[in-house]
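User: I need a structural model of Aspartate ammonia-lyase from Lacticaseibacillus baoqingensis for a docking pre-check later this week. Nothing fancy, just the predicted structure tokens so I can convert them on my end. Input:
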Amino acid sequence: MHYEEDCIGRLAVPDDVLYGVHTLRALDNFPIGPQIVHPALIQALIMIKQAAAGVNQAAGTLSAPIAQAIDQACWQLRQHAHPEAFPIAAIQGGAGTSTNMNVNEVIAKLATQLSGVTIHPNDHVNQSQSTNDVYPTAGKMALLQLLPALLAAVAQLTQTLRQKAAATQTVLKVGRTQLQDAVPTTWGHSFNAYASMFTRDLHRLRQAAGGLKSVNLGATAIGTGVNASDYYRHHIVAAVSACANLPLQPAADLFDATQDVDVLVTFSAALKALAVNLNKFCNDLRLLGSGPQAGFNELRLPARQAGSSIMPGKVNPVIPEAVNQVCFAVIGQDVTVTMAAEAGQLELNAFEPVIFASLFTSMTQLTQAVGMLSTKCVAGLQVNAGACRAQVEHSAIAATVLVPYLGYERTMRLIKTALATDQAVPDLLAKQQLLPPATIAQIFSPASLTGQAPAAAAVNQ
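Assistant: Understood. Predicted structure tokens for Aspartate ammonia-lyase:
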């Protein structure tokens, strides 16, 4: 045990930990839930510290032995060594200062141990920096590094849906508007529509991620760059970009980039839009897969587990249900981001910790949920083609295509008869000899019903 001092006073620090007094204060001040700072944010901060040491050495403000010791410690930590050294809760006061100082302390102590040179967390590791520029920059870096996994999951879901569409191009189904029978369509149309929806999500996510590449590194406290050399301010973003292999660029207005977080709101909105689309898709899967006897029974979802502790043989749509719940959470987290963003005041938004915590949670949940939905549900979906075809033939609304042949009034009377007698419309047409059999067959062919082929010449008697 040894003692360290900060502006509050002295505090006993265990000898077997890499962090120091600032981390201990945070642990005591913020016992908020099980969620700690995301490892991707910690890794991004370590890369910033590593790059900053090199730039400060080049600027002549940090000696070579100290810069090299920091670099050596950062390399070790970038291999995910000592994860226990970063225990602080994700939600914290101080606009991220606790997290920044946690990283500064760990790097300083590890660098000291590795080199034998005394490294100070503020004077050396944090040189030319402020929490107000390194923390939001690290948060954006972490989001950019997490994004490819989410994009890959959505792209895989889209591809799976396109494959389903190709396999069901001519499989008829009843189209519905407002949960009422509308006009016939095909499962190919439906699966393609879902795929197009998620393709739009891919575009929206990529577009929103563009704003994350603009960072305020070099702004220090509020945008003036106080305590940072000119050399550092002009070189640090390029150095961090090279270190992290990310296309970062300095913000055009460092003051704006320090105090305003609307780019994070935009990115959160793209995540929310994906969640909304996933929710709608999963609602459709559950509805169309309902039954099997007393529901729609148009889709057969893969059976994943027993659905009841009391009803033998019952199987529930558990994968879409789980994804639905992820979507509810993501939409709620977007509300958190929105409220935290608008609550910022003057030259800094103090609520970035909860913004980034919410975004990291949303991205992780969505990535896992989309992958789960694609592999454990959509890939194994089966269309009940026979039931869908029977519904089309017995759906009186399918007779809408007869209006050009029989006129609106005669078609309406035919529909009423079909509904009253529970007869298929084509059968009723044949019995009443209203149209020649060849014409009936052509009108009610899948291609004609779904607008993929020209109908027979209208008679409109």
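Before docking, keep this in mind: The beta strands are 2-5, 10-13, 172-177, 180-186, 214-215, 249-250, 299-300, 382-383.
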